[in-house]
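Good morning,

Attaching, inline, the backbone tokens for the sequence recovery test we're adding to the shared suite. The designed sequence is right after.
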């Protein structure tokens, strides 16, 4: 059933938003790489799943040094994915099915193939072209010392030395991520003007929102001080390159651009901060509409930890009148069925490292329960492609297949993020599982990352035929979430259900999640609406969640 997008200016407060990693979603031309044609062919699937919006990770022209987050041209679609005309058609076709579009913008850095950076290298030291970036002389008499000892988010250093036209060593440039992603200088007016124009470019093409990558990293201290000493905490806003106060002026300007368009065009920030008050400051009424809340995702499978996280999250958002967001994973994070099957079921990037055993049956039970937990919480819900299929992290990719720079920059210690980016299985009993369409006169190419041989039961086709599948659970949950007035945005009231159990009321819907080691009695209720596992209506097994009609 099609649900046309309403004119409700608050649509984003309780939306279900599905993350599309284009390269791995569906391949429409059979070359082994996902593309916009593949997404367009699968729009009915997304409609039937029940999502309100699609968030596309970068689909722009890029050398793909970091999976598209190294953008060479924000106004062009990468040829591997399609054309700008196809993107415009996709936006319109999705909207006709009741699905809005959110696109990713990466304001901290560009690709080293971006025209600005190429011009900066050609122009040389002291040129206006270099002022858009962070070029700096090295230390020491020969300039061979790095300007700072800041650490890259991907491991290793953050400065790369250039070579002058005469072949001699030149200045250094800053990159908080890979060498191929030079950081922009947000004190430069050209950088401000360019990004505001990029927002208008995509709003003019009908997108409903912008997801802002690494949103707390843009602004740097021009003095380039060293990082705080281990064990010390800088004053709020005083870190050299994280969460600086000047950032808020950037997002106030962006909000003015968004608010100049009809309807509500939302700004969604990727903000990784431990300080809840500093996090909430980005969500004041004249800045971003919403930001990813990673706190619940990072918690272990423990009732006390999860409840404390929910309370922290709701309190922080309440102070600025913004809705919370709930996220179990994304294109950077170990998939839930793998993570929840580990002895340490919390998430951190360090914990991703290889060799950690997991119990996939246990992880799957918990992931099913976590799906109902997060879908019942107040606010908006983000779903990463493939989590609705219960896909595990692929942890045995051949080393030669891994493309994520986190793997290379760690010397192979970090397995990288490709394990959650393996192409989706759609149908059939062997790879490519319907991921790739048959090209004219040939057979599909191998997917850009290899799929496991045992994924036949996890395909969309297999799960559509199985009433107990993860896919059917997600479809049922999202349908109930849409139809039940108490779910989505609004209030939450905790119920006392005993140790190891989370229970709360949303209107006349009760959500109960058993994280204890044994069965627990369900509270008085008027019937079971949905459960993540078998229940007789009187008790709930461990690692199981249920939605109940209030008595």
């Amino acid at each position: 059933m099609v649900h046309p997008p309403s004119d409700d200016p608050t649509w984003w407060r309780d939306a279900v938003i599905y993350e599309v990693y284009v390269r791995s979603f569906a391949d429409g031309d059979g070359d082994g790489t996902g593309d916009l044609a593949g997404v367009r062919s699968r729009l009915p699937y997304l409609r039937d799943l029940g999502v309100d919006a699609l968030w596309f990770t970068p689909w722009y022209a890029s050398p793909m040094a970091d999976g598209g987050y190294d953008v060479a041209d924000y106004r062009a679609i990468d040829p591997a994915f399609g054309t700008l005309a196809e993107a415009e058609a996709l936006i319109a076709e999705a909207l006709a099915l009741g699905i809005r579009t959110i696109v990713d913008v990466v304001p901290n850095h560009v690709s080293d193939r971006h025209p600005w950076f190429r011009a900066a290298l050609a122009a040389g030291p002291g040129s206006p072209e270099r002022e858009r970036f962070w070029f700096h002389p090295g230390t020491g008499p020969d300039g061979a010392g790095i300007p700072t000892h800041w650490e890259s988010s991907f491991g290793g250093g953050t400065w790369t030395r250039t070579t002058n036209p005469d072949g001699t060593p030149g200045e250094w440039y800053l990159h908080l991520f890979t060498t191929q992603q030079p950081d922009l200088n947000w004190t430069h007016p050209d950088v401000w003007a360019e990004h505001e124009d990029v927002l208008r470019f995509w709003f003019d093409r009908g997108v409903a929102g912008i997801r802002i990558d690494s949103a707390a990293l843009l602004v740097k201290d021009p003095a380039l001080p060293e990082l705080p000493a281990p064990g010390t905490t800088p004053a709020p806003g005083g870190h050299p390159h994280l969460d600086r106060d000047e950032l808020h002026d950037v997002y106030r300007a962006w909000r003015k651009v968004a608010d100049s368009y009809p309807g509500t065009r939302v700004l969604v920030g990727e903000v990784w901060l431990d300080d809840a008050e500093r996090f909430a400051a980005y969500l004041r009424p004249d800045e971003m509409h919403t930001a990813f809340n990673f706190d619940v995702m990072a918690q272990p499978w423990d009732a006390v930890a999860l409840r404390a996280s929910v309370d922290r999250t709701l309190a922080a958002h309440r102070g600025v009148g913004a809705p919370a967001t709930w996220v179990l994973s994304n294109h950077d994070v170990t998939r839930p069925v793998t993570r929840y099957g580990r002895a340490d079921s919390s998430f951190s990037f360090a914990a991703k490292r290889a060799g950690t055993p997991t119990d996939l049956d246990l992880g799957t039970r918990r992931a099913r329960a976590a799906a109902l937990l997060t879908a019942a919480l107040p606010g908006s819900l983000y779903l990463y492609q493939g989590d609705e299929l219960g896909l595990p992290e692929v942890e045995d990719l051949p080393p030669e297949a891994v493309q994520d720079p986190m793997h290379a920059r760690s010397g192979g210690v970090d397995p990288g993020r490709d394990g959650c980016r393996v192409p989706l299985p759609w149908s059939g009993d062997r790879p490519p599982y319907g991921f790739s369409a048959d090209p004219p006169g040939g057979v599909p190419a191998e997917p850009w990352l290899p799929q496991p041989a045992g994924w036949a039961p996890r395909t969309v086709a297999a799960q559509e035929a199985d009433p107990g599948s993860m896919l059917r659970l997600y479809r049922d949950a999202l349908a109930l979430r849409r139809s039940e007035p108490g779910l989505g945005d609004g209030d939450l009231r905790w119920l006392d259900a005993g140790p190891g159990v989370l229970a709360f009321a949303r209107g006349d819907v009760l959500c109960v999640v058993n994280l204890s080691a044994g069965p627990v009695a369900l509270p008085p209720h008027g019937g079971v609406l949905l459960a993540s596992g078998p229940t007789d209506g009187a008790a709930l097994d461990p690692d199981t969640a249920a939605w109940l009609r209030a008595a």
